[in-house]
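Suppose you are handed a protein chain with no further information: no name, no annotation, nothing but its sequence. What can you learn? This example shows the usual starting point.
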Amino acid sequence: MSNLLSFIVIFCVAAVIIGSLACLIWCIKDKMGKNEGESMGHNFDGIEEINNPLPKWWSYMFVVTIVFGVAYLALYPGMGNYPGLLNWSSANKQVLSMEESNAQAEQARSGDAVVQYEREIANAEARFGPIFEAYAARSIEDLAQDEEARKIGQRLFLQNCAQCHGSDARGSAGFPDLTDSAWLYGGDPASIKLTLMNGRNGYMPPKGGLPIDDAEIPDLVEYVLSLSGRDHDSDAAARGQGSYMKGCFACHGMNGEGNQMLGAPNLSDDAWVYGGSRGVIAESIKNGRSGQMPAWKEILGEDKVHLISSYVYSLNQ
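A reasonable first move is to predict its three-dimensional structure. Written in structure tokens, the prediction is:
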């Protein structure tokens, strides 16, 4: 935060602490103009207010909380940009990439800073690393048959992959269903692991980057529907085939069977990443599609990716 905002935060926190202490001192001293034990003149439902001092235990506890609060704010970051005497932080903050996160972690270690998240990750790696390493020594096909390995892989999937592909791995609009046999880049163990390790960048330019007029799109949609044997207008599909042959076949194949080397979807099945209605297909053709799956190699490490790969592979076996 800016220095001005940091100053405002520090000022407000200090004002609250000083104000609380002043209020406590004021309450401990008799400022009511009456002797201890005298009536304050207030009576409600038979209960009379008496001028009695605060209980000693309550006053002492209040003082302890103030002292604790001051000590905590001095040791830990809690007031604006002040880092605290212990140089502690919960995690690397204001990072936009793994490179920035790793750079901050290295800077913290070189400066003897305590980053709680990094410390917990290191402890977890020391404890569970050998377990993941032992699983990584086995093949993905073997792990897919191991119930305990699948459970671990499922938990890793739910923690890191379910946000896009769903807790049941059936995906949603723009995110592939991992439980069917339609794979953009291949569904064998090696291809699945490669996808997870390095990520994928899928891109279809508007109209495939081809000289296709908007007026041709409805006919092209009918031809795409015909490739998977769905109900379609035969005459329109015949006209749309000419538009398809302008260049769509270069990625999707002559018969629309797709190309896993390019990640081009198979148009001859009934699996649709963005939806298979006429309107959605027309939108895909006209505006193109762009999708990205992040690489998990640096985030999770190869051993954990190996386990997730085995779980994903097991979903359609």
